[in-house]
Design a protein that fits this description.
The chain is α/β, with parallel strands linked by helices and about 290 residues long. It has 10 helices and 14 strands. It folds into 2 domains: about 90 residues, Alpha-Beta Plaits (2-Layer Sandwich); about 160 residues, Rossmann fold (3-Layer(aba) Sandwich), CATH 3.40.50.
Length: about 290
């Protein structure tokens, strides 16, 4: 039987869902996440044009599971005959409204709502579409900050699709540095900046956290956004403190509400104070001041 596409299905622990989404991005398809099920897991579906190789999938899932310190999930692969797999994935990704931000794929027709800040992120990009509560919370935090002050040197650490770097470039007339460890994310973020007309304002670099030469050279930063996971955020607190300018603001996300103290404790010990928290579902976004 010929197939016009394939679907990879699995369920993962909610706290590590973003890690698995990032891992599956390298397969080149569209990834759709559903709400938490009765067992507290997030169902993920990857819509792929070509049949995926099982050894590669197993390696990707094993790496994500090790990073998240969770068991390797099982998965299933099924053909999708007689359907347009791209159209199916696009229908599953309608535009996202986060305050004034209007995040949409190229498949969305018609002008953006009046007064909105449109950001184009293709439907094939799963992590960083604004759909996840952690990214949504960061967009709301940035919009709130824009009402209060301007920033001259923002940094998006762990930029993924580049959505948050693009949002900052559209909020403030300032050069934005975006960084990610994953080469594919670096390429993706740069391309998305170009598509959104802010390529001249957003510079994307590869960096292992705050240790990269480009990070040190570009600092100190008056605004740092890091939408990662609780464990890495806590471990990277000294690096954040080192590059954050006096009086600077840090927006931290990718953590569950129950993990707030795990992230806050190391930052408070370095002199940062909690200014605001945004809770969406079981996820938290923390706004800290230096």
């Amino acid at each position: 039987m010929s197939a016009s596409g394939w679907r990879l299905v699995l369920r993962v622990p909610e706290a590590a869902a973003e890690l698995f989404e990032r891992a599956l991005q390298s397969l080149g398809g569209a990834i759709v996440s559903d709400g938490r099920d009765a067992e507290g897991r997030i169902p993920l579906s990857a819509y792929l044009q070509d049949e995926p190789e099982q050894p590669r999938i197993m390696a990707l899932l094993a790496a994500a599971a090790a990073a998240g310190r969770v068991p390797v999930p099982g998965f299933g692969i099924e053909p999708l005959p007689d359907i347009d797999w791209v159209a199916e994935s696009e229908r599953a990704l309608p535009p996202v409204r986060a305050g004034r931000f209007y995040v949409h794929g190229a498949h969305v027709s018609g002008p953006p709502p009046a007064g909105s800040i449109p950001i184009l992120i293709e439907a094939s990009v799963a992590f960083g579409t604004g759909r996840h509560e952690s990214t949504f919370g960061c967009l709301l935090a940035l919009q709130d900050l824009a009402k209060r002050r301007s920033f001259r040197r923002p940094l998006d650490m762990g930029c993924g699709s580049g959505l948050l770097a693009i949002a900052m470039a559209k909020l403030w007339p300032a050069p934005v540095l975006a960084a990610d460890l994953d080469p594919e994310s670096v390429h993706m973020a740069a391309e998305n900046a170009r598509r959104n007309g802010v390529a001249s304002a957003v510079r994307v670099v590869a960096s292992d956290g705050y240790r990269g030469a480009a990070i040190a050279k570009g600092g100190p930063y008056d605004l740092v956004v890091a939408n990662i996971l609780a464990g890495p955020l806590a471990a990277m607190a000294p690096g954040l403190r080192r590059v954050l300018a006096p009086g600077g603001i840090a927006v931290l996300s990718g953590l569950l509400s129950e993990q707030e103290m795990q992230v806050l404790a190391p930052h408070r010990s370095l002199g940062l104070r909690l200014r605001r928290r945004i809770r969406l579902g079981s996820w938290s976004t923390l706004v800290l001041a230096g």
